[in-house]
Each structure stands twice: as C-alpha cells, then as structure tokens.
Specification:
Keywords: 2Fe-2S, Iron, Iron-sulfur, Metal-binding, Oxidoreductase. The chain has about 400 residues and is α+β, with helices and mostly antiparallel strands. It contains ten helices and 18 strands. The structure holds FE2/S2 (inorganic) cluster (FES) and fe (iii) ion.
Length: about 400
C-alpha cells in the first residue's frame, strides 16, 4: 500500500481504497484449504479446549478434537490437569471413546486393556507380567505412556497446543487480549477464572469457521440483523465494530439498565470491574477460534470447533459469579440477548456458506471501510496457509 513519507509533507496521506477484495470462495469450501488450516493453525497454535470446571474432579476427563487429533484432558489425583493424545500406545486404539466421563483410578484401553495412570504413565498390560521389552529390559513406563500435549490454564479454560515447540502463550493468547484492550490488567478486572457457567449453548453451524470469525469482527451487519443488540448498544447501529479501536468499549444506551434482551437490570457488576468498564461492552478475538465478550456483570465466551470446511460447532458459555449461579437467580434475560445475536449471526453465516462455491464468488467479494480490519485477518491467514490451489 502506498504511504506518505514524512519527508514529503506536501502530499496528503492517500485514503485507503473504499473497497478491498476478500478471500476467494474456495477458501471457505475447499477441503484442501481446511486440511491446511488444521495442520498450520489448529495443530500448531494454542487451542481453547475446555472450561476447567468441566473437569473438576480427579479422574474426570474430556475428549476434544483439535485439528485431526483427538486430545484427552484429564484431572489427576494430584488435582493437576494434563492433556494427552487420546491414543493407546499398544496398537493405536482410541483410548476414550466418550466425550466426557470419570474413572476411579486409571484409564484403560477398551481393546486389550493396557492401563495408564492419570499422569499418562503405563501401569499395566495384561499377560505381560513385569512389562519387559524385546531385550528383556524393563519397559520405560513413561516412554510407553500416553503422549503428552502442552496445556495452559487461563481465564478458567484449558488451552492445549499440539506443536512440538508451542508458540509463546503470553504473546499469542494473552497478547491478543492486551492488544485489544490496551492494558494487560483490563482483563484481570473481570476475574474470569473465578466465574461459573450459568448457561451453555452449543450451536451446530453449517458454515466455515472463517465466516464466523469475519462476522464476529465486523458490525456492518448489526443494524440489519441485530435489533436487540443495537437497542442496547446504539453506536453499533452505525456499523462500526468495537474491535476496531484499542480499548474502546461500546457504551450502553442511556435508557439501558443492563446487558439483557430488554435492557432491564442485570446483576451486580463483577467485583473487580472498574467504573471505566461499567456500562460498556468489549469484544475480543483470540485467534484462531475464541471470541470473548465482556460486559459489567457477566462474560460471554465462545469457542469454535471447526469440523469440516462447511461445518463448525460453537460452544458458548455465559459466565457469572459463583453467587449468582449458586443463588439460582434467573439468568435468562441476559442469556437471551446474546443467544439471539448468536442465532442471527450463525443464520447469516449459514446463508452465506452455500454460495461460497458459486462461480460468481470465485474471486471473492469486497470489504467496505467499516470492514477493512478484516483484511488483516485475511493477510494473516494467507501468510500462515500460503496459496492453496
Ligand atoms: Fe490399546 Fe491394545 S490397542 S490395549
Ligand atoms: Fe453479529
């Protein structure tokens, strides 16, 4: 892009072009693109896999698909969360075939009953007596144990990374949040790790995960499809996404008491939320698959699980203080607002998906100025994936 040099003050900075091309349609439908994304993105970056509270008890486990790999996240007897590839080291059977569960002591393969401790160590193999290898030496129970996967806990979620050398969590995950909010302490104020799931809705969306990312990043569509949201956040009706400006939170309308479907009062604001954060909504994208929405009294946390080029599961948690959840107070008015937003957004994405393979969209469409920041996502993606033809 042409820029004005400081040594040439006579020339005005050229305005960015009003229309910027998008990715072509194949990026949303081609299985080879999706395979490249699995390999280059989901299997290399930090992937937000589970709410840690879903795996609270020793022996509890959760199975999660990360790219092409099945990953098992297990709480040990020492209370530690660990992640492993969900594959038996004997002859490769899938170890856990249920999505969630709890074992009393060990994990046992349903095929020939090799048994692993909750820390992944091999503890027994039937008819193998003292577990010897071909030379008669004792088997290394760690080397023949489950293959570990890197795991970090942050914001009350377990993030896993399949890369041999995981990228910096501080840079890639925490840094994305700081970059958006402009202050590393801003997210801490919400104490998201202390909150509990008041409601979870799982959406099965017939759309490519990138259509969902792009939709989340812009608000050009807000006036058209989000009547309830624009009522609560009037500036969204102008089409400018809160994500464009560092530290900018969209302000509640003057007559709005809370972030609820009818603008009625919500709950007490979260204890650490500052006056500057009160009555404001902040939206954050953490690549590749997480969106976080911050409002004064709760958090709306989306995690995407891309299944195929044209299907994405989105798990959305509404998080409240322990007191609100324990009291059994009715959260439905605050849930209903973003649930409607989700349904409106996902319907738009699903409506767009089938036409991505049309000949008219081979070269893609255009981004208007209110969407120009999406071009940066496309650039990032093309750099990571390369040109897939
Ligand atoms: Fe698991 Fe044989 S494949 S015990
Ligand atoms: Fe939307």
């Amino acid at each position: 892009m042409e820029t004005t040099s400081h040594s040439d003050p006579g020339r005005a900075t050229p305005a960015p072009p009003a229309l910027i091309p998008t990715l072509g349609g194949k990026w949303y439908v081609d299985d080879r693109v999706f395979a490249a994304e699995q390999e280059q993105l989901f299997e290399r970056m930090w992937f937000c896999a589970s709410r840690t509270g879903d795996i609270a008890q020793p022996g509890q486990f959760k199975r999660v698909q990360v790219g092409r790999e099945s990953v098992l996240i297990v709480r040990g007897r020492d209370e530690q969360l660990r992640a492993f590839l969900n594959i038996c080291r004997h002859r490769g059977a899938m170890l856990c075939t249920e999505d969630t569960g709890q074992v009393r002591r060990n994990l046992q393969c349903p095929y020939h009953a090799w048994t692993y401790a909750l820390d992944g160590t091999l503890v027994a193999a039937p008819n193998m007596g003292a577990l010897k290898d071909a030379t008669g030496a004792d088997i290394d129970r760690v080397a023949y144990g489950l293959v570990p996967v890197a795991l970090r806990e942050w914001l009350g979620y377990a993030w896993v990374c399949l890369a041999d050398e995981p990228p910096s969590f501080e840079h890639d995950v925490m840094g994305a949040v700081t970059e958006r909010l402009g202050d590393p302490a801003a997210i801490d104020a919400y104490e998201i790790d202390t909150l509990e799931v008041g409601r979870r809705v799982v959406y099965d969306v017939a759309a490519n995960w990138k259509l969902i990312v792009e939709n989340f990043m812009e608000c050009y569509h807000c006036a058209t499809i989000h009547p309830e949201l624009t009522e609560v956040l009037p500036e969204f009706a102008q089409g400018l996404a809160a994500q464009v400006f560092v530290g900018h939170g969209a302000e509640f309308g003057p007559d709005i008491a809370g972030f609820t479907v009818d603008g009625s009062p919500g709950f007490d604001r979260l204890p650490g939320v500052t006056p500057e954060q009160d009555r404001r909504y902040f939206a954050i994208t953490i690549r590749p698959t997480v969106f976080v929405n911050l409002v004064p009294d709760h958090i709306i946390f989306h995690r995407m699980f891309p299944v195929s080029a044209d299907r994405t599961i989105v798990e959305c948690d509404w998080l409240y203080t322990k007191d609100v959840v324990a009291s059994g107070r009715d959260v439905s008015r605050s849930v209903e607002l973003f649930h409607r937003v989700n349904e409106q957004d996902f319907a738009a994405c699903a409506r767009t998906q089938p036409t991505m393979s049309s000949r008219s969209y081979r070269k893609g469409g255009v981004l208007v100025p209110a969407e120009h920041h999406i071009a940066e996502f496309h650039e990032w993606l093309s750099c990571r994936i390369g040109d897939v033809r």
